[in-house]
């Protein structure tokens, strides 16, 4: 199982966290997602993960992201 960590900018509340989590969970291959508002990080685990696809999922919700 692969693990990718993202830095997510623009989250200001738990609604933001929920939106980012939902977007990441919808990416094929994702098994677990943990998004932390205080550190602006997201940890994604799963099989055959593509970092660019994860970044695009977050950016599709209106936030910016980059691989850590």
TrEMBL record:
Organism field: Acidithiobacillus concretivorus
UniProt keyword Metal-binding, yes or no: yes
Matches recorded under PANTHER family: P-TYPE CATION-TRANSPORTING ATPASE
Domain HMA: from-to ranges: 2-66
Keyword flag Metal-binding: yes
Alphabetized InterPro entries for the sequence: Cu-bd, Heavy-metal-associated_CS, HMA_dom, HMA_dom_sf
Top-level taxon of the source organism: Bacteria
Keywords associated with the record: Metal-binding
Protein name from the UniProt record: Heavy-metal-associated domain-containing protein
Pfam families for this protein: HMA
Signal peptide: none
Residues in coiled coil: none
